[in-house]
Amino acid sequence: MSPSRYDLKYQVDIQDWINTICLVAILLVVGFGSAQAQNRQELESKRKQLLREIEETTTRLSQTRKDKAAALDRYFTLKKQIKNRQQLIITLRAELDFAEASIQRANEVVDALEQDVVDLKQEYANTLRSAYRSSINKSSLAFLFAAEDFNDLFLRWQYIRQYNEYRQRQARLIIETQEMLIGKAEQLAERKIEKEQLLISQEEQQIILNKELADKDQLLSKLKVSESKLAANLEDQQEAHAALNATIERIIREEMAEQRRASRNASSLTASTEKEEAVKNVATDRRLSVSFENLKGALPWPVKSGKIIKKYGRQPHPNIQTIQITNNGIDIESEARARVFAIYDGKVVGLRYIPGYQNTVILQHGTYYSVYSNLEEVFVGRGDEVNADQALGRLSKDKPEVHFEVWKEKQRMNPTLWVKPL
Q: Are residues 194 and 331 in the same domain?
């Protein structure tokens, strides 16, 4: 007897059902794995950034610990360290929770697939019973020889061969998918152990940091006791700031007056050579102004690496909260002995030593000016033409902070709006 059409259709339906199971399982693993990898990378990236900041702050703490006069800097550096450390632990816990959720999800898929295998075995049994009813009993050879003619024999042989092939292929796919999911679960379990160990390490560091927090409280007490000294120090800082501001404004006024004289001379000169030179200088200043302005928000930083520690504008004093201070620029903390670079082509129009700000270099870019203070060494001289990214000087080893300002004629600008975002 030939296999019935029902049996053949039943076999095809089973095969389609198995294919669907495998496809869904693989899509679950691939899709879930892709999303998991993306989120994991984001968390890892955040963790690495926090670790870099903690390392930088640790270096800063080490430096301020050696300097007894840097109590205030140490106090705020400790506060920043504590905040970063706590944020790091939160990030690590999020990574740990994410890994646990990934493991649970993978295990659920494995369990579901195991149940599918059980169901598949039952379907196989039904298929075998159907095959038995179609005269495929214990002997496939007898089933073949029971064919009525050659065409029937060929159909029976093809039926048996396709049945065996698809059963072996689907069973192999199920096993491979199971192994893949189990491997995924093992990988996530290893990652969970890694995160747990890292979390333990960070919690141990938090204990150490709590001790430093106690040190911070002691420092704060000392600072409050010495508030009169701080006020005197603040007065000195304000005097230094006023001296810097007066120097900048005086130099800018002188340069603006010089530009006006040059513009008038360009129109009044009769000698062709002198007039041509004067016109050329005026045109250069205009070109620099326009090109500088067009690069707003895209100019390079004056140091190759660093972070802003004092922002632009009016703000509370870092220790005496009742006092407001004004910063005409931004203060960027960089590496010890770091070089300071020109942010754009220009001319050195000012070079002064100001107590509290060390050496100050002022560059002119047409009607715009950039100011670089706290330079321990200076590599340029007044009147020098400099190019963008040319080294102007070097910061000190003990306090590598550059005070950076941008002016448009006599108007102060917010430097953070002119340089590239960090």
A: no
* Tokens of residue 28, six digits: 């679950």
- Cα separation, 323 vs 319, in Å, equals 9
Residues 283 and 202 in one domain: no
Tell me the angle at which helices 227-268 and 150-225 cross, rounded to the nearest 10 degrees: 110
Separation of CA 393 from chain center: 29
Which pTM was predicted? Answer: 0.48
Residue 321 phi/psi, 5-degree rounding, is -65, -20
The amino acid sitting at 399 is K
Task: Go through 100-118 and write b for each residue having 16 or more CB atoms within 10 A of its CB, e for each that does not.
Answer: bebbebbbebbeebeebbe
CA–CA dist 137, 128 (Å, integer): 9
Q: What is the residue type of 151?
A: N
Per-residue pLDDT reduced to its tens digit, 29-85: 555 555 555 677 787 788 778 777 777 777 766 665 555 445 666 777 777 888 888
Which residue range(s) make up the domain with 50?
Answer: 5-225
Average pLDDT over every residue of 291-314: 92
> Does residue 250 share a domain with residue 188?
no
Neighbouring residues of 409: CB distance < 8 A, sequence distance ≥ 6 = 252, 256, 367
State how far the Cα of 82 lies from the Cα of 203, in Å rounded to an integer.
Answer: 12
In a shared domain, residues 197 and 245: no
The answer for 389, left when phi > 0, alpha when psi is -120 to 50, beta otherwise, is: left
Do both 73 and 206 map to the same domain? Answer: yes
The pLDDT tens digits for 403-417 are 999 999 889 999 999
Note whether 18 and 161 are same-domain residues.
yes
148 part of a folded domain: yes
Structure tokens at 160: 């048996």
166 & 65 share domain:
yes
Q: What is the CATH number of the domain that holds 258?
A: 2.70.70.10
